[in-house]
UniProtKB/TrEMBL annotation:
Gene3D superfamilies: P-loop containing nucleotide triphosphate hydrolases. GO terms for molecular function: ATP binding. Keywords: ATP-binding, Nucleotide-binding, Transport. Pfam families: ABC_tran. This is ABC transporter ATP-binding protein. SUPFAM superfamilies: P-loop containing nucleoside triphosphate hydrolases (SSF52540). PROSITE patterns: ABC_TRANSPORTER_2 (PS50893). InterPro entries: AAA+_ATPase, ABC_transporter-like_ATP-bd, ABC_transpr_LolD-like, MacB-like_ATP-bd, P-loop_NTPase.
């Protein structure tokens, strides 16, 4: 379902990155570990089509993501890929509900799943609250809900536990896993957080040991 082959990347004047080849099926989970600066966010952005590799293939289903661009890429991403960013990309003056509706709007998918999702993530009672009134953990859940609102085939999470205490870190990882399992999505978590290591069996480490 997701296949990465021969992917190479380099920022202007930066050192080149070789991304290891791997394949994931629907429902599979992968942890990409690496210390700070090893290229975890870079990989995630390549997988999500936010950065174009210099060479190689990023295939999701029958689509070569690295060959899409512009509106086609945006539409494909909106429909098939949910990204939980390191810093929540949610609009804080809007309510929780409005943030989800915005995600629905941009990908042209109706919001029939929004309430259920908020209930599953334990923040349904906050749906009318403005995001800037939420705690960090709650805001993180909104950003997970937003990433999942469009029933993605692939969920990408960048350091989803970085700012959370042990208890909430475990809750967030389990929520991501539960959601991925329930909706047969592939899940990739990139992190340097050693606490996540015990939760995902399938792991690769980039840039040497973390
Ligand atoms: N836009 C950019 N232009 C040039 N170099 C960049 C850019 N973004 C990242 N880099 C460099 O690429 C390398 C990898 O960065 P990246 O953010 O992917 O690492 P990371 O493993 O996610 O780090 P962290 O765990 O600290 O978030 C770093 O050396 C970084 O300085």
């Amino acid at each position: 379902m997701l296949e990465i082959k021969g992917v190479k990347f380099q920022y202007d004047k930066g050192k080149p990155f070789d991304i290891p080849d791997f394949q994931l099926n629907a429902g599979d989970q992968l942890l990409i570990l690496g210390k700070s600066g090893s290229g975890k966010t870079t990989i995630l952005n390549i997988l999500g089509g936010l950065l174009k590799p210099l060479a190689g293939e990023v295939r999701l289903g029958d689509t070569l993501i690295n060959q899409l661009s512009g509106a086609k890429l945006d539409k494909f991403r909106g429909k098939h890929i949910g990204i939980v960013f390191q810093k929540p990309h949610i609009l804080s003056p809007l309510t929780v509900e409005e943030n989800l509706k915005l995600a629905n709007f941009f990908s042209g998918i109706n919001g029939d799943r929004n309430l259920e999702l908020l209930q599953e993530l334990g923040i349904a009672d906050k749906r009318k609250a403005k995001v800037n009134t939420l705690s960090e953990g709650e805001a993180q859940r909104v950003s997970i809900a937003r990433a999942l609102a469009n029933k993605p085939d692939l969920i990408l999470a960048d350091e989803p536990t970085a700012s959370l205490d042990d208890q909430n870190a475990e809750i967030v990882v389990k929520l991501l896993q539960e959601q991925a399992r329930k909706h047969h999505a592939a899940l990739i978590i990139v992190t340097h957080d050693q606490r996540v290591k015990d939760h995902v069996v399938n792991q690769i480490t980039i840039g040497g040991l973390s």
